[in-house]
Design a protein that fits this description.
about 50% helix, single chain, about 100 residues, mainly alpha
Length: about 100
């Protein structure tokens, strides 16, 4: 989608099929949003094919170990909710 191509092979070089640094940043941002994995721009330049990047990510995640985040629990809505830091700052400035 980012490259405007119908199909991309796992062995295609990102930069040879039309990728450049701006698209690379967009790609890494989408990867972080959808998969939850942060990848450096240097890592993409070092591993420009999907297969090589996936292998590097797998190795990095295995070295880091399992990292699970606690489940998000909904807050009770029956009373007043605390202000966020941004809301506190706005209230302070308004005063």
């Amino acid at each position: 989608e980012l490259l405007g191509l119908q199909q991309v092979s796992r062995h295609d070089n990102f930069f040879e099929v039309g990728g450049h640094s701006l698209i690379a940043v967009r790609l890494l941002s989408r990867l972080a949003q959808t998969v939850g994995v942060t990848v450096s721009l240097a890592s993409l330049f070092a591993h420009p094919t999907l297969a090589a990047l996936a292998l590097a990510l797998t190795q990095t995640l295995e070295q880091a170990g399992a990292q699970t985040l606690p489940a998000i629990v909904p807050a009770a809505r029956d009373g007043q909710l605390p202000l966020s830091f941004a809301q506190q700052r706005l209230w302070f400035l308004a005063q």
